[in-house]
Write a structure and sequence with these properties.
- 35% of the residues lie in helices and 21% in strands.
- Helix 1 runs antiparallel to helix 3, helix 8 packs antiparallel against helix 9 and helix 10 crosses helix 12.
- The protein is elongated and about 80 Å long.
- The strands form three sheets. Strands 1, 2, 3, 4, 5, 6, 14, 15 and 16 form a nine-stranded mixed sheet that branches. Strands 7, 9, 10, 12 and 13 form a five-stranded antiparallel sheet that branches. A two-stranded antiparallel ribbon has the order 8-11.
- It is α+β, with helices and mostly antiparallel strands.
- The chain binds zinc ion.
- Zinc ion binds next to loops.
Length: 411
């Protein structure tokens, strides 16, 4: 590297983060800018205006993904791509997704400030409906772009009021042209960690090498409703007895496959839900994750075994249904190397890690070389109005993104 190493403008980046956070701001200091709402539209318009000010060509595709391109010397070369999402959870924070998008824009502005011409174009992308809170498919825009989902499937998704993705895209004027996917030279997604590891290790940067395997089960156990008083315990067919055993076995699984394993029981419902009636049915979810394919497969098999053997033992019927599964992802070795080089050159304390959450990068990885960069977030909190990051960490991540993009875009 030359003596004249470019640095991103930390104040400009932070100011834009705070300006974006005013759109859909909540009383508790968070953001409610759910996909394809008026607030999302306003955030998108603000972003596009900044991109045009930076001299970018801005284009929307048919699912509302925004592509802001800074031209390269080789006009026909595939772009180096970066980006994330601007939509939030209903009680979301200021940084999840937004940071990656605005840091990408900050890289473009920095290239402009330092008059750096790249060979490849550099593109900042906003992926539509990453959160999946209003329309129940997370990472929707990147799924359509990468071919994991058809545009028609996405168009039909609707919110609780029956408004479809297609109608809402039209209503807010964010539906662009149905263009074929262009090749990508390299891609990076910069994101807040959404977990506590970097902060607890006192590190500035996570060099993300992949995403863990994830599976969500819906488990239904059926028995017989009966009175809580007269029926002896031995004669009941009580699904909750099975649930008690299954839950304890699932948490044991987490111990057996530690430290990588994650087991979350986030939803449980007993029917009819009366204190003095033995439930006739219990429904609950189990979200199982592991970075290692073998451990992961063993966890799924054990979960399914646990459900069927508990049903047999308590004379019940039931099944564990996989309602959502995302296979793990290994990111591109060259992209990871570019991030690693940037960390070395800038001397930021860093570690290599696996992402615990899904990101648009998982979809992109199926069709383009990509890796991710994490920065710490306060107390590991995310999907929370109190979500926060330190301005110096925001700057560090953007500088790493700048270097990684330059390494790929100059060659
Ligand atoms: Zn996100």
């Amino acid at each position: 590297m030359s003596n004249n190493i470019p640095f991103i403008n930390a104040e400009r980046l932070w100011n834009r983060l705070m300006q974006m956070a005013e759109i859909g701001a909540t009383a508790a200091g968070g953001c409610n800018r759910q996909a394809l709402t008026d607030e999302d539209a306003a955030g998108r318009e603000l972003f596009m205006s900044w991109c045009r000010d930076a001299g970018c060509e801005v284009r929307l595709d048919a699912i509302g993904n925004i592509f802001a391109r800074r031209a390269g010397r080789k006009t026909t070369a595939a772009p180096v791509m970066t980006g994330s999402h601007l939509d939030t959870q209903p009680t979301g924070g200021k940084f999840d997704g937004i940071y990656g998008v605005l840091a990408g824009l900050e890289v473009l502005d920095t290239l402009n400030d330092f008059n750096i011409e790249t060979d490849h174009p550099v593109e900042v992308v906003v992926w539509t409906n990453e959160e999946g809170s209003r329309f129940d498919t997370a990472m929707m825009g990147s799924a359509v772009w990468s071919g994991a989902m058809t545009k028609e499937q996405a168009y039909q998704l609707h919110d609780l009021d029956g408004a479809t993705v297609e109608a809402e895209l039209q209503r807010i004027g964010q539906c662009g042209l149905d263009t074929p996917r262009q090749p990508v030279h390299a891609a990076f997604e910069l994101h807040i960690e959404q977990g506590p590891i970097l902060e607890s290790e006192n590190l500035d940067i996570g060099v993300v090498t992949g995403v863990q395997h994830m599976c969500r089960y819906r488990i239904n156990i059926r028995g017989q409703e009966t009175h809580a008083g007269p029926s002896p315990m031995s004669q009941r067919r009580d699904p909750m007895m099975a649930v008690a055993r299954i839950l304890s076995e699932l948490y044991q699984l987490a111990d057996q496959h530690a430290p990588g394993a994650r087991v979350t029981i986030g939803y449980i419902r007993a029917e009819p839900g009366s204190p003095n009636t033995v439930p006739g049915e219990v429904v609950f979810t189990a979200d199982l994750r592991h970075p290692d394919a073998q451990h992961y497969a063993a966890m799924l098999a054990a979960c399914e075994d646990s459900v069927s053997s508990a049903c047999t033992a308590f004379k019940l019927e039931g099944e564990a249904t996989r309602i959502w599964e995302a296979p793990g992802v290994s990111f591109d070795a060259n992209c990871i190397a570019a991030v690693r080089n940037a960390v070395c050159n800038r001397n930021y304390p860093a570690m290599e890690m696996i992402s615990g959450a899904g990101h648009d990068a998982c979809n992109i990885a199926a069709v383009a070389p990509i890796s991710m960069i994490f920065v710490p977030c306060e107390d590991g909190l995310s999907h929370n109005e109190a979500e926060n990051i330190r301005p110096d960490h925001a700057a560090a991540g953007a500088n790493i993104l700048l270097d990684a993009i330059m390494e790929c875009a100059l060659a």
